[in-house]
Fold this protein.
Amino acid sequence: GVEVISLFLILHLLVYPSSNAYNSYIDQDEGSIGGLKNPPKADKSIYILSVLFDLMAILLSYWYVPFTFVLIILYIIFSRAYSSKELRLKKYPIISFLVVTIFQGPVIFISVLLIDYSFGDIMNKNNLL
């Protein structure tokens, strides 16, 4: 229903683009990337847009899919930590692999399951069958 559509839109129109925009701003790629021979410069407006998208995602998840609110916040925090100049988790191969694998896999999967099941039901896999 409404929760599934809301979560889909929050993730695909706000969280994922924000993560990509923030990474572009931090990395400032100048060489060929993503099929672009000369990618455009990611200026401060991209950073501001990423912050606005994150805030909108947090607010909308709180209102429309509150059971995923904490997971959305965790996804955003770890996405930022992955790219940030201060933490730069992406420079550590094992940690970056785990962050990407956990947050793009189980965290998103559990977010979707929380639409129809409680966290306790998810932990007790017999209730999902």
